[in-house]
């Protein structure tokens, strides 16, 4: 109990909380006994706590709860206990027992702990489909004022395209309208990329143009608000807000739910920012709004962030740690896209094939799948969860006439069950992205990629043996820290040896916060980087032309996307290997065997006989309309 530090006055409920001694073993044992034998009394005591009980309220529990009541009684002040003893008359043992029995009966018939919890918990939503109330910071005047129009501009990777759709879904729910005309916009939001310096420079140039547009806005119009979203917002928030003062709001990749509040703050003339990274945000409950309603393909984000910590990469610092969406929400979105007529879905993630859904308890103890042979990670194997192979299996079953792709994977996460699934399912595209980054084992070690040149080439051979006719793509960096001419030539030889169909090649751009920034020297001169990059691009195009040339004279299954950008008389689409195919917009057989002729429409699967090939494009003649099932049966 308390030492006598309190002032003994007439207020018996006043207690001291200094120097409270913990209960002894005997008191703890008695407290457990009281919990077991006098639960009704304990629930009554819990109810009393709601109103901050006085000493008088606690006196009955001293007798009812036994040792537990004694412990609670001793926590009262000495003065409070003395006054209570004086007030309560002394009774005989029998009378006291009858009083206690009556008191216990009344407690048992009274309210339970669940009653108090129920009264303090928010009411359960019985109709989840009903329209939600507007956010409290979005007043009726804001929601009704001229229906503010937002213009969204996307830079960078496919993840940013998906982020744009998520941001728009959140803003539309808050009453904003979408415009594709810059001049009509009241709010301009740029979804940005921070992977390379060139991408960031494009954003800075665009911001200065938009700031000039903002200054020319008529006073009779509502002020123009400009915002930066995505990776660049996370990396350069201080410079964007305070040094340049070009924008009104800044929102990182995990803060899109906060956009309505940020814009409401901006309406008061203040700058607003939220760049906090999350360990669990996946936007699983936000259904992205397709930016092109008539599109034949769509992106579905399945995980966010990356744990690989490659020494050159900024992604772990701008998008945070890996976390995966619950599989059920992914499959619901894929099903909805199928119902809308989408014919191709690409599963997205910074490290897409390390997907691990831990939302279902029964799978949390599952063993981790093995890594590709010769590959390693900087972190321990992650046990438990539903893995990528299971997701790929279930997604491919949603609609047999919908193609499934995925990007961007890491080469370490290709267990045999994934490769076997790709080979067996006719609607999983036979195309893999296997980022190599360099052909030199020494540079790969400096990059912390977790494999050697030899392990990578062994994986390439295993993939080609497992999936005949597979199309391969890759990423390469020219001029990484410490790269010698010999290292560069090893990359050149890797390009020739593998002969990729598609490639993404860039000069190295050092990023702050990365391991390379802190531990390595960016010692390859800019002109050397440019020369090496040009050589890599030249070799890639030469080898890709040969790889694509092997398809000349063969029929390719093509998903029609729409008119060609270069000629209205031609259509374009992509084959199973994700290579662009151009063909004349002419009549063709309808594919039913009836002899009827039709013209190809976006979303149709057609057979095209390839007549010529380049490093990036196939050209051919239209044969007939078909389906995924029929095409697979005639392979």
TrEMBL record:
Its EC number is 2.8.4.3. InterPro entries: Elp3/MiaA/NifB-like_rSAM, Methylthiotransferase, Methylthiotransferase_CS, Methylthiotransferase_N, Methylthiotransferase_N_sf, MiaB_methiolase, rSAM, rSAM_horseshoe. Residues 292-546 form the Radical SAM core domain. Its cofactor is [4Fe-4S] cluster. It comes from the Eukaryota. It catalyses: N(6)-dimethylallyladenosine(37) in tRNA + (sulfur carrier)-SH + AH2 + 2 S-adenosyl-L-methionine = 2-methylsulfanyl-N(6)-dimethylallyladenosine(37) in tRNA + (sulfur carrier)-H + 5'-deoxyadenosine + L-methionine + A + S-adenosyl-L-homocysteine + 2 H(+). Residues 148-268 form the MTTase N-terminal domain. GO terms for molecular function: 4 iron, 4 sulfur cluster binding; metal ion binding; tRNA-2-methylthio-N(6)-dimethylallyladenosine(37) synthase activity. GO terms for biological process: mitochondrial tRNA modification; positive regulation of mitochondrial translation; positive regulation of translational fidelity. Keywords: 4Fe-4S, Iron, Iron-sulfur, Metal-binding, S-adenosyl-L-methionine. The keyword Metal-binding applies. Pfam families: Radical_SAM (PF04055), TRAM (PF01938), UPF0004 (PF00919). Residues 549-624 form the TRAM domain. One of its GO terms (cellular component) is cytosol. HAMAP family: tRNA_metthiotr_MiaB (MF_01864). Belongs to the methylthiotransferase family. MiaB subfamily. PANTHER family: CDK5 REGULATORY SUBUNIT-ASSOCIATED PROTEIN 1, MITOCHONDRIAL TRNA METHYLTHIOTRANSFERASE CDK5RAP1. This is Mitochondrial tRNA methylthiotransferase CDK5RAP1. It comes from Chrysemys picta bellii (Western painted turtle). The lineage of its organism: Eukaryota, Metazoa, Chordata, Craniata, Vertebrata. The gene is CDK5RAP1.
